[in-house]
Amino acid sequence: MSIHAERMLVIDKDESCRQYLSSGLLRIGYYVVSVSSIKEALVSIANGRPDIIFGDLTADEISLLSTLRDPDFPPSPVIAFSHTEDASDVVTALRAGASDFIIKPFNDFSVVQEIIKRISEKIRLVKLNQRYSIELEDANRELKAGISELKADQKAGLKIQMKMLPEREKKLKGLNCDYMIKPSLYLSGDFLDFFKIDSQRSIFYIADVSGHGASSAFVTVLLKNLSNRLLRNFKRGSTDEILYPDRMLHRINRELLETEFGKHLTMFVGIHDNTTNTLTYSVGAHFPMPILVTDGHAEYLEGTGMPIGLFEAPTFRVYDRVLPKKFDLWLFTDGILEVLDAKNLAEKEQMLLKLAERSVISTDNGTDNDASSDSDVNAGVGNVNGNSSIRELVEALKLNEIHELPDDIAILTVSGVNDQDG
User: Which parts of the sequence belong to the Response regulatory domain (predicted)?
Assistant: First the structure.
């Protein structure tokens, strides 16, 4: 005889029938409690819910048992039985909530066993669903906790990334620098920086790390750390790599490969000499190339180069360009091309050229409407309200109205001025 874990409750005021059914259930291995009334049955259920209830019961009694609720379990199925020969009694019992019906007397116990088998399968499926529901709820709770933790981490990461960015609208020797970054996710894989190397030279760069989000943002930390180290080393006289844009790109390439992040980036590095007004630069596959606006005319700087972080021995060419005293240089990451409404890449490049040219002219002519004196730009990330040519371009592209950008967007402007302060 096999032993079953299920508990059976038999309710019948007819002692002989009750004994017959109980004995039969015991013989096939079930735990059985038998009572003679609904009152005794309720006491028994209160002490322990049965898996199946057998009962010679009225419709109201069946309904009562079928609706007994337990916060952890569904109602126990009720198998009604009776001496009735009237089909309407069977229908009434089923409508009251009975799961099945057996006609007394129990001449063939295999009928009972077959019903138990069928009901048990239903119970097994219900319990399985309950277990899956509990597991799903637990998983959802863990997922929500994980998302909350991730959001907290991202907020902390955003604060760190903001602190890494330079001061907006900053004056360097002979230069005015300004920028904007709009991440497509919480953290940005785009990064930029500018600072004075010495009294003669200033450096600026813009970088676009592959991918988006936290993993790409980690690489921007590496860039900031490396540029700080190169500047510190130069001031201590230990290395002069920061004076050479191609060597700087090589250094970043080497350190990025050593981290094994599996990330690569594009980058433009420019060094401005304020005594000769010369721009020396190198390109690490950056696209689009910076736009130079002089005397109302815009053009792309020439330059090509290999991406950073993919090859052991990339080559980076050095370019020199003597600039007029007054110029405007626009640097973008390729996310800007995603929001330009043009048919193809060539048209987008031309559109960007015109937009940069127009923004500079508009600002120079003083037609830039000061929409807000509140420079609430979160250190350049998010909405741009500043009184700058960047704002002109942002308004032209309606960037502040786009809530889900397809890619990070970074814009850096470097303008030549006569003022040598800074």
Answer: 7-119
The larger pLDDT score, comparing residue 380 to residue 82, is at 82
Closest CA to 116 of 21, 35, 52: 52
- Coil, helix or strand for 15? helix
Q: Which two tokens stand for residue 49?
A: 């819910």
Residues 6+ apart with CB under 8 A from 420: 173, 174, 274
CA distances in angstroms from 376 to 170, 189, 316, 384, 385, listed in the order given: 16, 22, 38, 7, 7
Residue 283 CB contacts under 8 Å (≥ 6 apart), including other chains? 267, 268, 289, 303, 304, 305, 316, 317, 319
Q: Residue 255 and residue 1: Cα distance in Å, rounded?
A: 72
Residues pairing with 31 in the sheet = 7
The one-letter amino acid code at 308 reads: I
Are the C-beta atoms of 117 and 29 separated by less than 8 Å?
no
The whole-chain average pLDDT of the chain stands at 87
How far apart, in Å, are the Cα atoms of 135 and each of 70, 72, 254? 19, 14, 47
Q: What is the pLDDT of residues 250-267, one digit of tens each?
A: 999 999 999 888 889 999
Closest CA to 193 of 246, 244, 268, 252: 268
Say what the pLDDT of residue 160 is.
81
Q: What is the pLDDT of residues 151-190, one digit of tens each?
A: 888 788 778 888 889 998 889 988 999 999 888 776 778 8
CA dist 140 and 383 (Å) reads: 34
pLDDT for the residue numbered 1? 54
- Distant-in-sequence, close-in-space partners of 220: CB < 8 Å, separation ≥ 6: 161, 164, 188, 189, 190, 191, 207, 209
Residue predicted with more confidence, 402 or 138:
138
The fraction of the chain above a pLDDT of 90, given in percent, is 57
Residues 6+ apart with CB under 8 A from 28: 1, 2, 4, 113
Q: Angle at CA 355, nearest 5°, toward 350 and 359?
A: 155
pTM of the entire predicted model: 0.67
Contact call for residues 333 and 190 (beta carbons, < 8 A): yes
Residue 349, number of CB atoms within 10 A of its CB: 18
pLDDT surpasses 90 at 211: no
Backbone angles phi, psi at 122, to 5 degrees: -65, -45
Residue 195 CB partners (closer than 8 Å, separation 6+): 166, 172, 202, 203, 227, 231
- Euclidean distance between CA atoms 390 and 291, whole angstroms: 13
